[in-house]
Amino acid sequence: MGAADEFGDLGLPSWLRAVCRGLNMRQPTRIQKEAIPTILQARHKTILCAAATGSGKTAAYALPILTTLRSDPRAFHAVILSPTRELAVQIAEHFQAFGAPISLRIALVIGGGDLVEQQQQLAKAPHLIIATPGRLGALLRAENEELCPSLSRLRYVVLDEADELLTKAFETELGDIMKAISNPEMRTTEYQTLLFSATFSDQIKLLQQSGFLKNAAVIDLSDENAFVQNVSTIQQNYLLVPQRVKDAYLFFILSRHLDSEGKSSGKSMSRSLADSKSTIVFVSTCSACELIATTLQILQLSPLRLHSQMRQSERLRTIQLFRNGNQPILIATDLAARGLDVPRVSLVINYDIPSSSATYIHRIGRTARGVGLQATGKSISLVSERDIDRVKAIENYMNREILPLDDIANKEHVVMEELGAVLKAKAIARLKIIERQSKDGANEGLKRRKGGVSSASRFTVSSKRASPE
């Protein structure tokens, strides 16, 4: 049976099946097979869907939403909420790809974007609103009389990465948005709430137990440890190194990739790293991201950086450069750990070990995208003495041992030869960051004195082309 027939069996129209063929979607994934007909049948007001990262969850709700939009082309058809700006932009890109044959109007309402332009997009009665809760909540407070009636017309409300959106960080904004959407004085039709996530968090389970979601349809494909199994084929290793020399080992791994002198009978880890296409280095804080990226830049590695304190235009440009393979090294906080679809990542390095075992899975899962749900990849965790308990907790969570990386550990003498240069580069990096922060502060002060504001990237989403506040 061909892809067109399989997608057709789910209730998708011929034009959308043709789009799937054009996007090389050969057959629906398991979450798409389960979720698409359930959404289209509209028997349930709330649908909870959990499936592993990279399993096609965006298409699982985008395709039925576009199906009903084509048959009933109303304005304010759906709102899709995302916990991060980058994921919101990615969702908009997916909708534009799927909705290319129709005149799709999208309002991208995210922090860091031009507020006036986003107000104008909403005034043009878009079919879809793709938003972060912070910015949409702010617009709702500013334009309550105009925006509330529009939100009360929505047919679909989607919470992408629902486990993140249902945390206290988004409680106020999400509450205001849902109150406007469900306003009984304005709403004349029913709407569906679609919650999508990699796993059902404790918060979602609590809502189920409390009866708030008792009539919801539940599609849970995260059972049987699928979340952990998704990374089961990734080669996971650790290096036990003192905290003070972590940077030297990181530089050694990234700059050498490493020795290409693997033995003829099978590749060593050093040789296989030489085949890596792109690498993500995860750190725990924005300041660490800046310091490590600047240090490596001084050492001539030219990495990209990604964290929440960057301007939105810089964040989007970084993601685009990394996706295109222009610069193959990305230093990032956990902003890049969830949701973002970045293909061709074959190595993840945990410079800092996350406190959450689930975050570890999300991080190394960046290497398992684009080739299949159990794609191969490599991860290396730089473990200091203070990280040992966290690593043990992660191993217990996965029911799997993370193996030591002996062929790099045995090169300690080579790493130490670079230690002086790395420490010197790090000291220079600290000075550069202080200078940059002082300059940025002076520029911001000058803009305020002139009555201006910081420039932000403008987001224009036309009908022909498809970030928290």
TrEMBL record:
Residues 454-469 have a biased composition (Polar residues). It comes from the Eukaryota. Residues 268-416 form the Helicase C-terminal domain. One of its GO terms (molecular function) is RNA helicase activity. Belongs to the DEAD box helicase family. Residues 5-33 form the DEAD-box RNA helicase Q domain. PROSITE patterns: DEAD_ATP_HELICASE, HELICASE_ATP_BIND_1, HELICASE_CTER, Q_MOTIF. Residues 440-469 are annotated as: Disordered. The lineage of its organism: Eukaryota, Rhodophyta, Bangiophyceae, Porphyridiales, Porphyridiaceae. SMART domains: DEXDc, HELICc. Residues 38-218 form the Helicase ATP-binding domain. Pfam families: DEAD, Helicase_C. Keywords: ATP-binding, Helicase, Hydrolase, Nucleotide-binding. PANTHER family: ATP-DEPENDENT RNA HELICASE, ATP-DEPENDENT RNA HELICASE RHLE-RELATED. InterPro entries: DEAD/DEAH_box_helicase_dom, DEAD_box_RNA_helicase, Helicase_ATP-bd, Helicase_C-like, P-loop_NTPase, RNA-helicase_DEAD-box_CS, RNA_helicase_DEAD_Q_motif. A motif (Q motif) lies at residues 5-33. This is ATP-dependent RNA helicase. It comes from Timspurckia oligopyrenoides. GO terms for cellular component: cytosol.
